[in-house]
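Office hours follow-up: a student asked to see two folded examples consecutively, so here they are.
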Amino acid sequence: MLDPTLEAEGLGPSPFSQALDADWAARLGEIEAGVRGASVLVVGAAGTIGAATVRQLLPLGPARLELIDLDENGLARLARDIRSRGAAGRQTQLGFNALDFAGWPGLAFVSANGPFDLVLNFAAVKHVRSEKNLHTLLHMIGVNVVAQQRFAAHLARQRLARRHFVVSTDKAADPASFMGATKLLLEAVAFAEGEAPGAPRTTAARFANVAYSSGSLLESYVQRFAAGQALAAPRDTRRYFISARDAARICLIGEAALPGGRVAIPRFDPASGTVELADTAAAFLAARGRRAVFVDTPEAAAALEPGSGEDYPVLLTPRDTAGEKEVEVFQGAGETVADAGLDALSALAPAPVDPQRLAGALAELKALVSGERTAAGPGDLEAAIAAVLPGFRHIAGGARLDDRI
């Protein structure tokens, strides 16, 4: 069943979540066989999807579970949660490690503690709002591309993993944002390193929005409501939501069921199950006994005094920020999809990437990220990425999310 919180707020259960439940039941034995008694490394373990995946792994009985994340507070919260679940994890050796996965200490840690049967990598700069200037873009490329290539190459060179999984995004299909483009490059570099002799079988997954994930619009509803502040949502924008548990299960099912070099994607038409983001705000408020009143300006929202009365303001904003799409798309130009023997997921083969162009783009991006060469502006970064992803066209927006409530 879907998370009851999502069901109460009109976000499920959906045909997709029900199909995923069936896949999980059918493939659980196969997934457990690959995890029980195994040594598993989870990178980005303190994030929403990473932590949800850890919770799904523990009942499957891994012998050892090493968790890496830069967020030491998030790791502390995860450790407390796991220890408070009683029997969960008692048979598993657990390590909580505050590390940069691709920095020298992180790579040395993996070498010292490997090899691993399975490496699940959720590390990412995941917000389009991080595209605010040249320097934050360089950081995004550094984390999503340069660090990922360094880490995947390290696994391959030292034969530190049997299987390697990376999480991508729906925005990687025909990317209109730098974030989507860096995730498409992540797939390319991970799969390229996965072809080296002794390299792990490498798979990936793209999926829809994870409801109430850290930093998400829906999480902001919880925070703003608790503070007595107006909610906000973009106009004319539809999204498909899944729970964190289902996101974790997509990753584990896809990792177990797909051949190397393939990306698990949801097997449905996103437009048929999407909801207006304005409607999610109304449903959230209705579940708390309040009635949404949609307004067009922050001044009108303030005039309604959110903390009092049944009426609660929801500010509707234009869909005019960088890289926004009206609905999710999982398959892009030049990509092919095949049946994976699953009800909820298909296997996507990425469009071919020229190895020499990929190597050249990586060399250029590494030089720009390290400061060896200086970029004059975001256009230099777009040109470097477009050299290997010729379909990439960044859609610049007229507004920034950071400038809105």
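And the second, which I mentioned at the end of office hours:
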Amino acid sequence: MTRALLALVLCAPAVAHAHAGSDSFLTLGPSGGRWDIALRDLDDALGVDADGDGAIAWGEVAAREADVVAYALAHLDVAPCAVRAGAAELAAHADGGYLSLPLSLACPPGAGEVTVRYSLFFDRDPGHRGLVRADGGELAALSPAQPVRTLRFAPTSALATLAEFVGEGAHHVAGGIDHVLFLLALLLPAVLRRDARGWAPAAGLRPALANVARVVTAFTLGHSVTLSLAVLGYARMPARLVETSIAVSVAVAAVANLRRLFGDDRWVVALALGLLHGFGFSSALTELGLGGGRLAPALLGFNLGVELGQLALVSIFVPVAYLARRTVAYRRLVLVGGSAAIAVVAVIWSVERALGLTLGS
């Protein structure tokens, strides 16, 4: 564990630039569809931002439209159909600007399913995914590990939707380094207790597990509430404010391990800051445009997936931390050093997200 924390400290600058997810959104029907691709990803691949000012204008996109369309279609195959793209448009998503391509499909008569082969940006970004939704509701998350999927143009069952979004929720936790570091910042002192001299090892397994359960349950309750409210349309926050606030919450949770910012009821902090993270989780669902009978099982499945992802992290971290809690290395290097490293990364994120910058690039 000490080696892992040392690696985090040394690699903090690299980790600090790995927090932004990269997805495109592809909707397909029997005769056509739509494909939204992040402008920042296209710029990384093709240099669309001609003047290098960090703001991609429509004129810059229009000047490279033929190149962009050719590049995109070269990385998409929808068998047994022929795919053509119409005039590109700009679209706004929660995480920034996107190029939106209307698609037409020439499929054989009576085709009830298609096999999608997707490889956009895979050679540049192994974390990129193509989120594909077929007319009728079937969803696929295509990645370098699974670049091919057969989708049917038929309504999907509630159980299939539930199962699909359990995987999406778990992926969102595993791929969201800011959420992972926030949870780690909360868990680092969970096997310890504060006394007059500072951090001391928890007396036994039961109080340590009770502390972990309170923190994780409070965080779960907090993000579940705002996730549900946001997806159902009852609450909204601007994307930049959400992402900046999440980064600040990671820094606050880490600094609280170094300085006594709050009382001993860390679960209250986990609950309050979990409310912010719920808005961050919600973007993965709202971008897919779910509605009707699919919304409830998708929301339930996504929540379950998030919890499974969190429990996987807890089940790996807590036993090791509990066994090491009495060592000076854990209290000095892992708790203090790890919290300091997390705080540094989170402060970099906060500045980047608030100002729209990429520090050190």
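Two things to take away from it. Confidence is low (pLDDT under 50) at residues 1-19. The two ends are 30 Å apart (CA to CA).
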